[in-house]
Structures are given as C-alpha cells and as structure tokens.
C-alpha cells in the first residue's frame, strides 16, 4: 500500500529529528569557551545538564498531547479515547532508569564518535530480549535468538572498528573511546530494564504514548534538575571535565553558553529534536507500523555517520559499515522484519496458507491460531 503525503512527512520527520538529536549533542560537546570567573577555554563537557535538556524535550510531549486532545474534543465526533486515570508514580521507576541511562550516554558521547554511539545503542535488543524472557515470561522464537547473536557480533565489529581506526586523537585517547563504548552498552542494560518495567506496569493501563513520554520526562526533569545542586559540590577531579573538577558545574555551563551562543543553539536543537522525534516515532507506529519505525531508527545511523564524516568528526573505516549492517540484520530478525518480506514471496505465502488450513482443520475448536512457518 502506497504511503500518503502525511506518512512520508512523518517518516522524514522521524529520520531527520532523530539524526539531529545525536548530532546536536555532539556538536555542543565540541565547542570550547571560557567559563565563569575568567577560566581558560575548555570543552563544553556537561552531560547531566544536557540530559536535563533532553527531559525538557520529553516534557513538551505532554503539552503536545493536551493540545491534540483539546483539538479532538472540539470535533463533532471525537476520535481519541477518554483520558484514563492512572497513578503517575507508576512512571517513576522507568523515569529513574531513563535518567540514569541518558546521563551515562551523554558522558559516553563525550568520549566516543557519534556514529559508534548510535550503532552501539543497538545493544538494547540483547538485554531487552534476555530480560523479557527472565521477568516477563516471554518465549523468544529462533529468529529472535539469531537476531540477538548477530547483534552481539555487530557490537564486536563496531568496537573493533574503534580500536583500529583513527577516530581517537590527543583529546580522546583510545582508552577513552573504548570506555565510552562500554558506557553506552552499560546504558543499554538500564534502557532494557526501563522497557521491561514499562511493559509490566505501565502499558497495561492503556496510557497514550505521548502522555507516557511526557510524564516520564517530567519526573526525569524535576529529579535531575534538583540533583544538579549536590553535583555542583561533589569533587571528581579531571573526570568532571570542568575547571572546578566537580561532577557537574551547571554555572560553568551557563557561563560558556553566554560567551558562546552557538552552544545554546546546539542545546535548543537537541531539546526540540527529541520532542519532534518522540511525536514522529509514535505517529509512525500508529499510521504505518512498528517495523517501519525500527527501520527508520536504524537508517538515522547512516545519516549520523555521513554527517560526522563530512564535518571531520571522525575518519572512514570499512569495519563500521560491516558492523552497521550486522546490527541492522540482527535488529531486523529480532523485530520480525523478515516475516513481512518472506510473506510477500509466492512460495512462502502458499506455504503459510497451506499450514494455516491444516492447522485450522486440526484445531477447529480453538479461537485463534498462531502460525510462524518462516522464522
């Protein structure tokens, strides 16, 4: 079925804003500016403040939800379901996971390349699959286990590419790049826990996705904003990346932004892109399919990689392409994309119909039949 113009716009919005989200954060990390009290020029290394900005973008999804709801209620025949009452604190545990994972990933983005950052986020497939088996009682089919195995292989290839490539320099030594890669993978474990918590406790309440994202963002924004206060006094030495050597120096960040307004532009791009990306992603799932959303999410890695090469943020290495395609194949198998492709092949379609008819005759007393002959 051909896409409508609206569906094309949604797909383009998701691809573009998803790419801008990572690229704008990396752009901000590359700026050098003086800090407070006339300190020397230093890199804008403020991952926790950037995470606060990301949550601010998610909070805006809540505003979008109520705008859409208000517009729908003005119609003669409203199409949206009535807003269900739910306990907002159900979103607190996944919000804490989101806050922790996001902060770790912004720290990692300071250490590794933007393309490796995006590729290694594919590790979430591994941990989501394993945790869903352990805590949700889900049974993975053969193709999903193969997808997890391929994802592991892809991660190894991407890590090897960072090890042998020239994407590290005097500012980011090889040990820092590999540390950044490992931090991204650790963050994906936390993201997987977040997804399992959402599926187990949140989704059963039938909360609108935009409302869910906005509520989680509100918790993350409030908690992390308050945590910036003690972080200002926690000494961590050179790890902090700021003149005072503390965990997060928000005042130093604001001073740098005032001196270098382009940093504000980069942060604004990050905030707006995460808002539009969440809206577009949810709309793509609703208007087209979840599989299309997965494919678009994978394609933005290519956009990020091409832009990073064009502006000189990293150097070309063939292993990255190989790693990307292995990760893409693993994600496709895990999410069942191969079923849609095989179902369109005449021989597989005929086989599915024959199996369906045979199972219908054998299980005529059952209400539903689940047949997956093309795993």
Describe how the helices and strands are arranged.
Elements: H1 5-29, E1 32-33, E2 42-43, H2 47-73, H3 92-109, H4 114-120, H5 124-136, H6 142-164, H7 174-202, H8 209-231, H9 250-259, H10 261-287, H11 290-310, H12 318-334, H13 337-343, H14 346-362
Antiparallel strand pairs: 1-2
Helix pairs in contact: 1-10, 1-11, 2-3, 2-8, 2-10, 3-7, 3-8, 4-11, 5-7, 6-12, 9-10, 10-11, 11-12
Task: Report helical residue fraction.
Answer: over 70%
The residue ranges in which pLDDT falls below 50 over 5 or more consecutive positions are 364-375
Gyration radius (Cα, Å) is 22 Å
The largest beta-sheet arranges its strands as 1-2
State the secondary-structure class.
mainly alpha
How many domains in all? 1
Strand content: under 5%
Number of E strands: 2
The chain-level mean pLDDT equals 83
Q: Total helix count? A: 14
Order of helices and strands: HEEHHHHHHHHHHHHH
Task: Describe the global form.
Answer: globular
Largest sheet: 2 strands, antiparallel
| N-end to C-end Cα span | 24 Å
Describe the structure.
The protein is mainly α and 375 residues long. It has one domain. Helices cover 70% and strands 1% of the residues. The chain has 14 helices and two strands, in the order H-E-E-H-H-H-H-H-H-H-H-H-H-H-H-H. It has helices at residues 5-29, 47-73, 92-109, 114-120, 124-136, 142-164, 174-202, 209-231, 250-259, 261-287, 290-310, 318-334, 337-343, 346-362; strands spanning 32-33, 42-43. The protein has a two-stranded antiparallel ribbon. It starts with a helix and ends in a 13-residue tail after the last helix.
């Amino acid at each position: 079925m051909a896409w409508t113009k609206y569906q094309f716009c949604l797909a383009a919005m998701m691809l573009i804003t998803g790419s801008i989200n990572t690229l704008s954060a990396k752009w901000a990390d590359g700026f050098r500016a003086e800090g407070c009290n006339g300190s020397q020029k230093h890199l804008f290394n403020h991952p926790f403040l950037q995470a606060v900005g990301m949550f601010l973008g998610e909070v805006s999804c809540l505003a979008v939800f109520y705008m859409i709801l208000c517009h729908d209620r003005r119609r003669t025949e409203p199409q949206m379901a009535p807003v269900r009452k739910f306990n907002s604190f159900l979103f607190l545990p996944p919000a804490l996971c989101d806050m922790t994972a996001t902060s770790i990933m912004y720290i990692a983005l300071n250490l590794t390349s933007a393309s490796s950052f995006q590729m290694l986020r594919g590790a979430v497939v591994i941990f989501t699959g394993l945790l869903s088996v352990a805590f949700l009682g889900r049974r993975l089919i053969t193709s999903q286990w193969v997808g997890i195995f391929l994802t592991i292989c892809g991660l190894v290839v991407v890590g090897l590419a960072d090890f042998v490539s020239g994407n590290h320099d005097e500012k980011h030594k090889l040990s820092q790049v590999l540390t950044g890669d490992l931090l991204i993978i650790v963050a994906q474990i936390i993201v997987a826990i977040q997804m399992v918590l959402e599926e187990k406790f949140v989704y059963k309440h039938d909360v609108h996705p935009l409302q869910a994202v906005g509520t989680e963002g509100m918790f993350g924004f409030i908690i992390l904003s308050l945590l910036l206060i003690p972080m200002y006094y926690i000494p961590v030495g050179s790890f902090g990346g700021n003149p005072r050597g503390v965990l997060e120096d928000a005042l130093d960040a604001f001073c740098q932004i005032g001196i270098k307004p382009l940093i504000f532009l980069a942060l604004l791009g990050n905030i707006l892109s995460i808002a539009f990306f969440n809206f577009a992603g949810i709309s793509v799932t609703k208007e087209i399919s979840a599989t299309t959303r997965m494919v678009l999410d994978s394609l933005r890695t290519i956009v990020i990689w091409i832009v990073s090469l064009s502006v000189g943020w990293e150097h070309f290495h063939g292993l990255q392409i190989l790693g990307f395609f292995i990760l893409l194949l693993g994600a496709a198998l895990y999410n069942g994309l191969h079923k849609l492709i095989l179902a369109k092949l005449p021989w597989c379609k005929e086989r599915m119909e024959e199996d369906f008819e045979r199972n219908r005759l054998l299980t005529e007393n059952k209400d539903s039949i689940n047949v997956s002959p093309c795993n």
